[in-house]
Design a protein that fits this description.
Elements lengths: L1 H17 L9 E7 L7 H13 L4 E7 L2 H9 L7 E2 L3 H9 L17 H4 L3 H8 L11 E14 L5 H4 L14 E4 L2 H12 L1 H6 L4 H5 L4 H14 L3 E5 L3 H6 L5 E5 H12 L5 E4 L5 E9 L7 H11 L2 H11 L2 E2 L4 H7 L7 E2 L2 H4 L6 E2 L8 H4 L2 E3 L7 H12 L5 H20 L15
Parallel strand pairs: 1-2, 1-3, 5-6, 5-7, 9-13
Antiparallel strand pairs: 4-7, 4-8, 4-9, 4-10, 11-12
C-alpha cells in the first residue's frame, strides 16, 4: 500500500510539472533528486520554512531519477529548467567542466542563517576542491550524502581477514556467492588500486593518479582481472543485491557503505550477521551533492533548498530514514551519531574537527581517519568514459547463461515477496542509486 501511495505521489508530481509553465516560476521550485533519497515530510517542511524566512509562498515540484546520465541528458540536451538537482561527484565535475551549473550566490539568503557555510565539514570542503583543480567546486555545489566503496560480507562464511582484500571477489572459495555492483566506475577504481599496489607502495603513482587513469594498459589489466572474477559472480546487480545478502543467498558483495548499512540492519532482524570493510589496499569515496543547473528559473528558492538540506536537524532526519552518511559537519550531527555502548572510539577529526579524535560512531558510516587516508575521489573521464563502458560490456558479455537467468528470476521474486510482506511502519533506509 505504501508503494501504491508513492507511485500516486510521483504521478501527481509529474502532472503538476506539466502545468508549471502556466504558473509564476517564482512560486515554484523544481527539485530533481535520486529515488528514495529524502525523509518523509521534509518537502512540506521546506515550503513552510521558506514562507517563514521570505514571506513568499513556494510550491515544490519534486521529481526523481535513478541514473546520473539520464538526469544529465535532460539538462544537457533538453535544457530542462530544474532549479536544483543532486548528481554524483563525477557528474558534478562534468557539469562544472561543461559550464552547466551556476555559482552559489549566498547574498540571496538575506538574514537567513547560512547553514551551508556554518555546517561544512573540512573534509567535504577539501574533497570538493579536488573535483576540479582550476575551479573550486565548493562555489558551485554542496555535498548531500557521502560514503565509501567496500566489501559487505557474511561473517558466518567469510572472515574479516578474507574480506580485507579486494581479491576476495576472485577467491574460488566463494564462487557462486559473489555479487558485484553493476557500476563500472565503482568497480574499476578499487580493482585498479588492487592491481597497482606495488606502484602505490613505492610512490611511483598516487591514488588520485589512478582515479584519472583511463589508459589502454590499465583498462586492459582491469578487464583481464574481471574476466577472472566473472565465473564466480552470481550477479551483477544495481539494487537488489542487498536483499540477497540478508537471505544467505550470497556471501560477498562489492557494495556502497550506505547500502551495506541497510543490509546489515535488515539481516540482523532475521538472524543473519553481515559486516562491512574497506579493503586494506585502498578504495574510493563518493559524494552526491546539490547544484543549481544552468537553465534553472528559480535560483533563489534553489539556494534556500540547499541551505535547508544543510540544517543539522534536517540532515539528521534524512540520515535516519535513508541510512547514508550526511555531509553536514555540524556538532549536532556528530552528537546524533554517538553510541558509546555499541561502538569503539575512532578518529573522526578529519570530518568534525579536533574534538572528534576519539568518538564512538558507526565506522561503516563514518570511517576512521586511517581508512579515509587510503581512499580517493573518483573523477570524470570525459570522452574516455565510453572506453570504460565498452570494457564493462565486454566483461559482462551479451549472452547470459542459464544459471544467470535463474539467479535473476530468484532475485526478482525475492524482492517482490520482500516488499509485499515488509511492514509499512518500518523505515525503508533504502536507496536506488545507480552510478555509472
Amino acid at each position: 500500500m505504501k508503494k501504491t501511495f508513492k507511485v500516486l505521489a510521483i504521478t501527481a508530481a509529474l502532472l503538476a510539472a506539466v502545468t508549471v509553465s502556466a504558473k509564476d516560476r517564482n512560486t515554484v521550485l523544481k527539485v530533481y533528486n535520486w529515488s528514495d533519497y529524502i525523509a518523509e515530510g521534509v518537502v512540506d517542511d521546506f515550503e513552510k520554512w521558506y514562507f517563514e524566512q521570505t514571506g513568499e509562498k513556494i510550491e515544490v515540484i519534486y521529481m526523481t531519477f535513478d541514473v546520473n546520465e539520464s538526469m544529465l541528458s535532460k539538462i544537457e540536451n533538453g535544457h530542462e529548467d530544474y532549479d536544483v538537482v543532486c548528481p554524483s561527484d563525477y557528474i558534478i565535475e562534468r557539469m562544472l567542466n561543461n559550464k552547466l551549473i551556476l555559482p552559489l550566490d549566498f547574498s540571496a539568503l538575506g538574514s537567513t542563517p547560512n547553514y551551508i557555510e556554518q555546517c561544512k565539514s573540512p573534509y567535504i570542503e577539501n574533497m570538493f576542491r579536488q573535483i576540479n583543480p582550476e575551479i573550486d567546486a565548493n562555489e558551485y555545489s554542496v555535498a548531500y550524502m557521502w560514503g565509501t566503496t567496500g566489501i559487505l560480507y557474511n561473517t558466518e562464511f567469510v572472515t574479516a581477514d578474507e574480506a580485507s582484500t579486494w581479491d576476495i571477489i576472485r577467491n574460488p572459495k566463494f564462487a557462486g556467492k559473489i555479487l558485484i555492483k553493476d557500476a563500472p566506475r565503482d568497480v574499476y577504481g578499487p580493482v585498479l588500486i588492487y592491481l597497482k599496489q606495488e606502484e602505490l607502495k613505492n610512490g611511483t603513482v598516487t591514488l588520485q593518479d589512478l582515479m584519472m587513469d583511463s589508459s589502454e594498459e590499465s583498462l586492459a589489466a582491469v578487464k583481464d582481472y574481471l574476466l577472472q572474477v566473472k565465473p564466480g559472480v552470481c550477479g551483477w546487480e544495481a539494487d537488489l543485491g542487498k536483499e540477497q545478502m540478508t537471505k544467505n543467498r550470497a556471501y560477498v558483495s562489492l557494495n556502497w557503505s550506505g547500502d551495506a548499512k541497510w543490509a546489515m540492519e535488515e539481516a540482523a532482524s532475521v538472524g543473519v550477521n553481515l559486516d562491512y570493510i574497506v579493503p586494506e589496499e585502498g578504495s574510493t569515496v563518493w559524494f552526491d551533492g546539490w547544484v543549481i543547473p544552468k537553465y534553472a528559473q528559480n535560483t533563489k528558492a534553489a539556494l534556500y533548498w540547499i541551505n535547508f538540506m544543510c540544517r543539522p536537524d534536517i540532515a539528521i532526519r534524512n540520515f535516519e530514514e535513508m541510512g547514508y552518511a550526511p555531509s553536514c559537519g555540524a556538532p549536532e550531527v556528530l552528537e546524533a551519531m554517538i553510541d558509546e555502548e555499541e561502538y569503539e572510539p575512532i578518529d573522526l577529526s578529519y570530518f568534525f574537527g579536533e574534538d572528534a579524535k576519539a568518538v564512538c560512531v558507526d565506522p561503516v558510516l563514518f570511517p576512521d581517519k586511517s581508512v579515509i587516508d587510503r581512499c580517493a575521489l573518483e573523477h570524470d573521464w570525459g570522452q574516455d568514459t565510453e572506453k570504460l563502458l565498452s570494457m564493462w560490456q565486454d566483461v559482462k558479455g551479451s549472452r547470459a547463461g542459464v544459471v544467470t537467468y535463474i539467479v535473476i528470476a530468484l532475485v526478482v521474486l525475492a524482492a517482490a515477496v520482500y516488499f509485499v510482506v515488509k511492514s509499512s511502519g518500518k523505515r525503508s533506509r533504502k536507496s536506488s542509486r545507480k552510478r555509472r
